[in-house]
Write a structure and sequence with these properties.
It is built from five helices and no strands. It has 124 residues and is mainly alpha-helical. The protein has one domain (2-123). Helix 1 runs antiparallel to helix 2 (35-55), helix 1 (2-28) runs parallel beside helix 3 and helix 4 packs antiparallel against helix 5. The mean pLDDT is 94.
């Protein structure tokens, strides 16, 4: 039960952070490209790379903190369902270039951000 509360709290904070980040991105960058979700997902990939990298270092992070930050916070912060819905909307609106850029860049930069976040922890 304790672990569920830890993960749930992290998920709550991640979800609220996702909403606020989207509001801020859309306030300063009005575009039909789904920039808010893009930024959130790439940033979330970077953070999960950092968190798992830190957890691999042994005594830096407890198992509860790892679950709070990765499953809870990052799970609540990032969103695959919105990514999929954004892609369908781009296809529906015949914005094929945005669709290709959004999908390709999300996957490639997401993988790179996770790798970079993880490697960054090896340098510290």
């Amino acid at each position: 039960m304790k672990l569920l509360l830890i993960i749930g709290t992290g998920g709550f904070i991640g979800t609220v952070s996702r909403y606020l980040t989207t509001v801020i991105v859309h306030k300063y960058c009005a575009t039909s490209f789904p920039l808010g979700t893009f930024v959130i997902n790439v940033l979330g990939c970077f953070l999960i790379g950092v968190f798992y990298g830190l957890s691999e270092r042994g005594s830096i992070m407890s198992a509860e903190w790892r679950m709070f930050l990765t499953v809870g916070f990052c799970g609540g912060f990032t969103t695959f369902s919105t990514f999929a819905n954004d892609n369908l909307a781009l296809l529906h609106d015949s914005k094929f270039l945005y669709f290709a850029l959004y999908t390709g860049l999300s996957v490639m930069l997401g993988l790179f951000a996770t790798y970079f976040g993880n490697m960054l922890t090896k340098c510290v």
